[in-house]
Specification:
The complex is a heterodimer of chains A (554) and B (115).
Chain A (H helix, E strand, L loop, with lengths): L1 H4 L1 H6 L1 H29 L6 H5 L1 H5 L7 H27 L14 H28 L4 H13 L2 H22 L7 H13 L10 H9 L5 H5 L12 H10 L4 H4 L7 H5 L6 H13 L19 E4 L1 H4 L3 H13 L4 E3 L10 H5 L3 H17 L4 E4 L2 H10 L6 E4 H10 L11 E5 L5 H4 L3 H8 L3 E2 L23 H16 L5 E4 L2 H8 L6 E3 H8 L2 H22 L2
Parallel strand pairs in A: 1-2, 1-3, 3-4, 5-6, 5-7, 7-8
Helix pairs in contact in A: 3-6, 6-7, 7-8, 7-9, 10-11, 18-27, 22-24
Chain B lengths: L21 H9 L11 H5 L10 H10 L2 H8 L7 H5 L6 H18 L3
Helix pairs in contact in B: 1-6, 3-4, 4-6
The chains are: A mainly alpha (554), B mainly alpha (115).
The structure holds iron/sulfur cluster (SF4) (5 copies).
One iron/sulfur cluster binds next to helix 15 and helix 16 of chain A.
InterPro entries (chain B): 4Fe4S_Fe-S-bd, 4Fe4S_Fe_S_CS, HdrC_iron-sulfur_subunit, Helical_ferredxn
Pfam families (chain B): Fer4_9 (PF13187)
Keywords (chain B): Iron, Iron-sulfur, Metal-binding
Chain lengths: 554, 115
């Protein structure tokens, strides 16, 4: 049912939704109702398929049970489909009217299929109308048009040619179908079925990837969402990725020219896993040159309750690290800062590059360290790390917590108290945290305790990418700046006091941009810690100092 | 006098006849930003992999320019793709792509002996 109705398109763009529904659902009903009608007319449960489709051709002028009602219904459905078709034709030539900036390019197979699809229903209308004029068996629409044909000339002359043309266009459509975008009609049904059955993509090409690839209808909705076009990149978006996989001519330049931001996945009406599909292709493409990292050695772990892994990116934003340290100290947590001096990367950037086997090596090394520490909690302050720790590390008895959640819990349990201010903040959802991990509310709740978080149109799953994404290995820095400015200009429109994010990479990217001041939420919290709790921190520091003196015998 | 020749060490010599620029051309065709590298070493200083082992990204650029494919293929394996290098690079060079291209280029050389 979902394949025919596509409620997702409706929500996003009602006109487009109506177009798809009237074409797909209308046609489906035409077939079903037509079949019923034939069954009743023939008094038989089994009627040959062609008889149902070309019923008006065979029917002649017999009256049968409910024939009037059926004529009306069939005409109504035909009108329904035709109205959708009209929208579709207008859309092809006037895409702006539909709020679409871009529509996909067609190849010749598509053009044949598209033309025959466009012709099927008008021809059906004309053919059925001539029948109506000859046999007087039409409903409100076909009789009307039939009368008009009758007026122009003798309907009997048009009768055979029109039915012939109608059946030809139908034939053409089904012949062109496997080689065109309309292949999604049969494939999508299979796809939705498999998805509901709980089948998921694995890390390699298999028949399920094929099903997804062929389910894409090339509607171009993903194209419209993709920020890359702001930077003039118009050939690597999901719809083209899928097309290139189908045609087996995917180049590395296109495969790796994607931010992996997930904006396209949110609105895909078919629910194609664009990111995962691309990841699978990247894994396949780089399979032969995975690194072994045999230089990694097992460092000694320190025992602690909590392990803090800052990650490569956080190391380039030292203020985030010092804020986290301040928070840990104030809350008197027993923390081991695992990668304070050195540690391998978390493995997520390798995964984004498709180097899955290589990433596993880093994951094994890090996992052993974390487990050796005996900690019950692992805190990370970078969403890129968070995603890989949560999804790909096997850490029994260790809870992986993102710093936003961790800090929120500290405040909630009274270990940390913060002052409020009347700062207006815009919160930028990092892709890896938001669309990647589905965490939208926790950072907002946390920031809401300190200041006011401004609501925006493009937030949560519709948030922009900062442009700095590690997922894209091809884009130039200049083009990244265009993406960054698209987000920044939008945020500046809300004239906030500051911009807050939860990703060190976003922070770095935005900080290099225009004048808006950017902070990580850890910095905001560290800056808002109450003086009460601060004095606690001071006590600890003094105690530590005293300990030092004691050790040195002073 | 020949002892004072500054071209004495092997590492400073390039044999023009044997100069293998296949990987270099492969990379430059696909990542022009690499042309502007000034060998400042900023990338090496921040490198996550360089922190753990004797790995020097800047030297990868050097080996690449010198056509030292044997050195390259071992060295380039050590990169972790973390992306810190690009963030500190004063010339905005897309170093991860350079590394990816070298890896791909060498793999293709090995399998097909052509590029
Ligand atoms: S991937 Fe989804 S949104 Fe993009 S063209 Fe295909 S069906 Fe449409
Ligand atoms: S993941 Fe982002 S960058 Fe890649 S195609 Fe989708 S919208 Fe575009
Ligand atoms: S840096 Fe942040 S916003 Fe940008 S792509 Fe990465 S997670 Fe998304
Ligand atoms: S930081 Fe950039 S310019 Fe400096 S050596 Fe590295 S790549 Fe070259
Ligand atoms: S991406 Fe590779 S070369 Fe660059 S800093 Fe990370 S490990 Fe070093």
């Amino acid at each position: 049912m979902e394949a025919l109705l596509h409620r997702k398109i409706f929500r996003k763009n009602p006109v487009l939704g109506y177009m798809h529904m009237s074409l797909a659902f209308g046609w489906f009903l035409l077939i079903v109702v037509g079949h019923l009608e034939t069954m009743i007319a023939e008094h038989s449960l089994f009627v040959p398929f062609h008889k149902a489709v070309f019923f008006r051709y065979y029917e002649g002028f017999d009256e049968f049970f409910l024939s009037g009602l059926f004529s009306f219904l069939m005409d109504f459905l035909l009108l329904f489909v035709l109205s959708g078709l009209m929208f579709a034709i207008v859309k092809r030539f006037r895409k702006k009217l539909f709020g679409l900036r871009r529509t996909t390019h067609l190849k010749s197979g598509d053009k044949i299929a598209l033309t025959s699809l466009w012709l099927i229903f008008p021809l059906r209308l004309l053919a059925e109308s001539t029948s109506a004029a000859v046999y007087h068996n039409g409903g409100f629409l076909t009789s009307g048009v039939g009368a008009a044909i009758d007026f122009i000339g003798n309907p009997a002359i048009f009768y055979y040619p029109l039915w012939m043309a109608y059946s030809l266009s139908l034939g053409f459509f089904f012949v062109a179908l496997p080689n065109s975008r309309y292949m999604h009609i049969p494939t999508e049904v299979v796809f939705i079925f498999l998805r509901v059955a709980g089948i998921r993509l694995k890390k390699q090409n298999d028949s399920y990837t094929d099903v997804q690839v062929f389910s894409c209808s090339r509607c171009g909705i993903c194209l419209d969402k993709c920020q890359l076009s702001v930077a003039g990149i118009d050939d690597s978006q999901s719809v083209y990725l899928l097309k290139n996989i189908r045609n087996k001519n995917l180049s590395d330049e296109k495969l790796f020219n994607c931010l992996m931001c997930g904006r396209c996945q949110v609105d895909c009406p078919v629910g194609i896993e664009t990111i995962e599909l691309r990841t699978v292709q990247r894994i396949e493409s780089t399979r032969e040159y995975n690194s072994s990292y045999d230089y990694l050695i097992q460092e000694v772990a320190t025992k602690a309750d909590v392990v803090y892994f800052a990650g490569c990116m956080t190391h380039l934003t030292p203020r985030v690290i010092s804020s986290m340290k301040k928070i840990f100290a104030t809350a008197e947590e027993d923390v081991w800062f695992m990668d304070e001096v050195k540690a391998p990367c978390c493995g997520r950037p390798l995964m984004l590059a498709g180097q899955y086997e290589a990433a596993r090596k880093l994951i094994e090394n890090n996992s052993r360290m974390i487990l050796d520490s005996g900690a019950h909690t692992l805190v990370v302050s970078c969403p890129i790390c968070y995603k890989v720790f949560k999804e790909d590390y096997k850490l029994p008895d260790v809870e992986v917590v993102f710093h936003a959640q961790y800090i929120y819990d500290l405040i909630h349990s009274g270990k940390l108290s913060v002052d409020t201010s009347n700062q207006r903040m815009v919160y930028h959802d990092p892709c890896e945290l938001g669309r990647g991990m589905g965490m939208y509310e926790t950072p907002r709740k946390l920031l809401g305790r300190i200041g006011e978080v401004v609501h925006m149109k493009d937030e949560k799953e519709y948030a922009f990418c900062c442009g700095g994404s590690l997922g894209n290995l091809k884009i130039s820095e200049d083009k990244r700046k265009l993406l960054r400015d698209q987000a920044l200009v939008t945020y500046e429109g809300f004239s906030p006091d500051i911009l807050v994010t939860a990703c060190p990479k976003c922070k770095k990217t935005f900080a290099a941009g225009r004048k808006l001041k950017v902070f990580d939420l850890a910095e905001i919290v560290a800056g808002a810690i109450c003086v009460d709790s601060l004095s606690k921190e001071k006590e600890i520091l003094e105690k530590q100092e005293a300990d030092c003196y004691a050790v040195e015998g002073l | 006098m020949s002892q004072f020749d500054f071209l004495q060490p092997k590492s400073r010599q390039i044999e023009i006849e044997q100069f293998d620029d296949r990987i270099l051309t492969y990379v430059l065709e696909r990542e022009q930003s690499f042309l502007t590298c000034i060998s400042c070493g900023g990338c090496t200083a921040t490198c996550s992999a360089g922190n753990l082992t004797s790995f020097n990204v800047r030297k990868i650029g050097l080996s690449l320019r010198r056509g030292n494919i044997n050195d390259l293929s071992d060295e380039v394996q050590k990169c972790m793709f973390c992306g810190k290098c690009t963030l500190v690079c004063p010339r905005d060079i897309n170093i991860r792509n350079v590394v990816l291209l070298i890896k791909k280029g060498i793999a293709q050389l090995e399998t097909e002996k052509t590029l």
